[in-house]
Amino acid sequence: MPHAVSLLRAARLTHSVKPFLARRGSRSPRCAGCRLLPSHCICGLRPVVSTDAGMCLLMADIEPLKPSNTGWLIADLVADTFAFAWARTAVDPALLALLADPQWQPYVVFPGEYAAPERVVHAVQPAPAASGRRPLFILLDGTWSEARKMFGKSPYLAHLPVLSLQPDRASEYKLRRSRRNDHFCTSEVAAMCLALAGEEQAAQALDAWLDVFSYHYLQARNQQKIDWDSPAHQRLRALEASTV
Ligand SMILES: [Zn+2]
């Protein structure tokens, strides 16, 4: 069954007026499960993770179509991942219903300096304090300027707490250029949220999954074969061994 980001990508493709062309190799067939070339497919490696947390991705217009999008990787691992296309002038009623669902305690994940101080939190309430609600992390998936726009122009988010992350490491994301190493990709942000929610195992699995995806993606782009014993593979295997 395709996950939320896969379905959103398919819907976005249907609505495209002109075909979206990724820069390189876009004509080659891709695995529907991981978007990579069949020779570089990672589907057989996907770790099984259990987590109580949910993820709600608000995705900028063409973000679901980008082969380097990492929201996809979140949906691979976190069963309760929801994905919505963001638009300034409209909101999906299903998103409003999700935000109002009492089983969830939503957090908008965004730097605190852009929010009113009374909304900003740095920790995730443990379940009892949040009246038994499961954390739902709202991630604004797009470029930095798109994310700022989404944050500022989504009135239905304005009443929710803003979870401001305080990363203790630099980003390791290699697939898009950024001038700053404190700009994290979406799956790295999700992993930090899982860690804050006390879901360390899931957090580490997601980071390791990004590592494996990035390695396969770059090997495919450089027309290199996969070393199935690469550091990324070893990291993922070690994590899986520790959960058995
Ligand atoms: Zn695949």
From TrEMBL:
Keyword tRNA processing: yes
Domain of life (superkingdom): Bacteria
SMART domains with a match to the protein in the record: DTW
Keyword tRNA processing: yes
Record-linked InterPro entries: DTW, DTWD2/TAPT
A Pfam family: DTW
Name of the molecule in the record: tRNA-uridine aminocarboxypropyltransferase
Origin species: Pseudorhodoferax aquiterrae
